[in-house]
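Quick one:
INPUT:
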């Protein structure tokens, strides 16, 4: 499997390069980044044969079977469609698009080409959430409520590495997408109720810096999601599962019970790294000729709910 990582020297591009290095039979043959000196230096450092400054140049290569897009959100839909038009399988970092119309266009292209097109919904793959999902599927747990906090301190346009961004992030279409998809995945269907509230827009960035979202599943489970770019404190996303048989707190790849006792997740998956597990699923789906967990056709339901929430806030 020969893979191109686009947006390779960004925070998540580097995470994917690290993850792919742990998967047997995978070779990163090309990396893409907009700055020639940076991307060529990364290729030399990682021993990668090709470095390009445009996606078009990379997907025209015969030694690229598939592409991982770790590029700015606003580029995802057009780039994913371009990859599929070039006959390349594609994994799109979350979110697959920042509008329902663009998400539908990506799904239509996947159905037309039959290629593997996967959205990087990492929460489906974090061992902490997999452990909960396994218990739900076994009939041992039922979610009553998910209480989720997604908090960052980003009053300037910076990325996860603390470097200036050339594009603007979004609480709804990026960060809420994680939780909306996870809640629907864990409860087995699209939310029957969904609404949002947002605070004032930032005077320069033009985006809401605080947001509150409510969801309700068909079985009655609810989700309360708070998001902020104004939070000057512990950063990240923290999930509290309030269930009929216990309370559990998920912090990325780690899981604790309600009394902060850590739960052993060593037998849940072949890795405790959610990014690596996404990449493994992407590669396996291509090799096995099957639909991946996180196929864009399945994630479309989350994008439909995000669109509903956005309309509720206008």
């Amino acid at each position: 499997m020969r893979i191109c990582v686009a947006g390779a020297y960004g925070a998540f591009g580097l995470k994917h390069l690290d993850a792919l290095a742990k998967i047997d039979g995978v070779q990163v043959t090309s990396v893409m980044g907009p700055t020639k000196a940076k991307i060529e230096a990364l290729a030399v450092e990682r021993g990668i044969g090709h470095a390009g400054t445009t996606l078009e140049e990379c997907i025209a290569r015969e030694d690229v079977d598939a592409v991982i897009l770790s590029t700015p959100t606003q580029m995802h839909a057009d780039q994913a469609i371009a990859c599929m038009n070039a006959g390349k399988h594609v994994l799109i970092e979350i979110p697959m698009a920042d509008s329902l119309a663009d998400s539908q266009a990506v799904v239509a292209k996947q159905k037309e080409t039959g290629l593997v097109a996967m959205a990087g919904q990492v929460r489906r793959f974090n061992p902490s959430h997999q452990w909960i999902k396994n218990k739900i599927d076994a009939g041992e747990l039922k979610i009553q409520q998910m209480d989720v906090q997604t908090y960052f301190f980003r009053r300037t346009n910076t990325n996860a590495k603390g470097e200036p961004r050339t594009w603007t992030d979004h609480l709804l279409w990026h960060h809420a997408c994680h939780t909306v998809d996870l809640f629907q995945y864990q409860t087995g269907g699209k939310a029957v109720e969904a609404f949002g509230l947002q605070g004032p827009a930032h005077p320069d960035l033009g985006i809401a810096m605080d947001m509150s979202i409510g969801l309700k599943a068909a079985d009655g489970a609810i989700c309360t999601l708070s998001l902020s770019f104004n939070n000057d404190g512990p950063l990240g996303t923290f999930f509290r599962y309030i269930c009929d048989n216990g309370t559990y707190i998920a912090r990325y790849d780690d899981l604790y019970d309600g009394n902060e006792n850590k739960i052993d997740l060593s037998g849940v998956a072949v890795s405790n790294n959610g990014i690596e597990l996404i990449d493994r699923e992407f590669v396996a789906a291509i090799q096995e000729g099957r639909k991946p967990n996180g196929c864009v056709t399945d994630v479309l339901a989350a994008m439909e709910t995000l669109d509903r929430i956005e309309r509720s806030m206008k």
